[in-house]
Amino acid sequence: MSFLSKFGQVIAGAAATAAGVAPLFPGLFGSAAKVDKAGAVINSTLNDLTNVAGVIAQIEVALAGKTSPEKFGAAVNLVGPIIRTSQLVSGKKIADEQLMQKAILEVTQGVVDILNSLHQDSVKTS
After folding, report:
1. How far apart are CA 4 and CA 56, in angstroms?
2. pLDDT tens across 43-64, in order?
3. Of 8, 122, 120, nearest in space to 63 by CA
4. Structural domain harbouring 61
């Protein structure tokens, strides 16, 4: 069993997805206005990345009987809106829609690869 499969099972059985480590970061950056803004950007980025990983894990469980390409397609359809509404992209004009879609595919595949690269023993069940 892969990390992603095991992680998906844990997510499916959990009452809520953990917020991750993002709340730990603000204290590391101090309290100056510029530093707080940098901390907020880091928190936002970490939350977006955590959301992408969560979506991928949920797809793994929800589409357990489906093929990898079907799961990937479903994940891309859910990851796209996360990226498009992220602080990085939101409110900006997209000049090249094909390049944006390519990036969404690559980000999705990248997070899938990260999750699959982790050892299944790394999944915390509590």
Report:
1. 8
2. 555 577 888 999 999 999 999 9
3. 8
4. 3-122
